[in-house]
Each structure stands twice: as structure tokens, then as C-alpha cells.
Amino acid sequence: MRGILRMTLLSAALLGACGAAMAEDWQLAKDEDGVKVYLSSVPGSKYKAYRGVVDIKADVASINALQEDVKGSCKWIHACAEMRLLKSEGDNSWTYSKIDMPWPVTGRDVVIHVTTEKTADGGLIRHLQAEPTYIPEEKGEIRVPKLVGEWKLVPKGTGVTEVTYQVQTEPGGSIPSWLANSFVVDAPMNTLKGLRAAAEKR
Length: 202
Known about the structure:
Layout (H helix, E strand, L loop, with lengths): L1 H11 L14 E6 L2 E6 L8 E8 L3 H8 L2 H4 L6 E10 L2 E8 L8 E11 L5 E7 L11 E2 L2 E10 L5 E10 L6 H25 L1
Parallel strand pairs: 6-8
Antiparallel strand pairs: 1-2, 2-3, 3-10, 4-5, 5-6, 6-7, 7-9, 9-10
């Protein structure tokens, strides 16, 4: 569970909006190599929410196990600079991540409360919610103030899982429009491609 937590907060940690229920007008932004990325405007935010969807030739248990590999997960999570588990209590975990930002943009970090839910079909949903005051802010980083999202793993027949990664966030501080526009596509696209490549090698 730790890996998925981190991957969520990592990619999640950058752009989007705030309030999953508020982003419903999803428009296909990119369809590449089996990964589809959708974007949605969110009322009151200048950042778009993103949703990535991909089918992976691996079962839910295998993907879940892969995502629990904390050290290994940072290799395939988009913009991953650092990630660690702060606390775990049953189905609840708190994670900390740092996000790489291109110079001269100040780096971001994020604390996310992850709640894991098992579904009746044998799948998993991990609900993500930023808790920016959970630990003190670190010098040289801008703490992401708002983030909401989820990871959803849905079994789709023998050895196939549909993975959906959705995030809305306010990144804090100032983000150039070119970076915001690219990140909301690159984060789900690259993260899901990386997860699929790692899972299908197993």
C-alpha cells in the first residue's frame, strides 16, 4: 500500500484543482500507447483536474504489491524526487513526497492522507486528501495546500486490471502556465506508462 500511496501523492502533488466532485466535464486530452488522459476545468480554480486510464496485464494483487515497493516506485512515478511513509493505521496512511520542478520554479512537497477501500469486485480504491499541516513545512519547499483524488484498480477479466488515476490540486505559489498545462497531461500519462511497464515485467 505504501507505494501506491506515494505514487498518488507524488504525481498528484502538482496540478489540477480542489474537490473531486467538482470536476465532471472530462475532455480527452491525449490518447497514446493505450493510455488515455482526460482533463476537466474546476470552478474557482485556474488549474485543471486530470484523469488517466489504462489497462494493465496484471492482476490487482500484483499491481498492489508493486506499488507497495516504496524505493522502487519512485523510478516510475512522474516527477518523483522523494517519498516516504509518515504513518500507517489500518486502512489509513499518511505520506510525504517531494516533486521535482524545473528551474527556476520552487519545488513542491505534499502530505497526503490515503484511505484504502476494498471493493466488492475484488478491486481497490485509494482516496487521497492533502493534509498540509500534518508535519511542519520544510525549508526550500512550497507545501501543496489542497489536493484530492483517487487511485482505482478494477479487475477486467483474467490477468487484466483497469487502473484509473485522478487528481485535482492547488499547487501553491506561482506556477507558469506552460508548466501547469504540460504537467496535468504528463503526470498521469508517464506515471501510468511507468506502472504498466513495471507490472507487466513481473
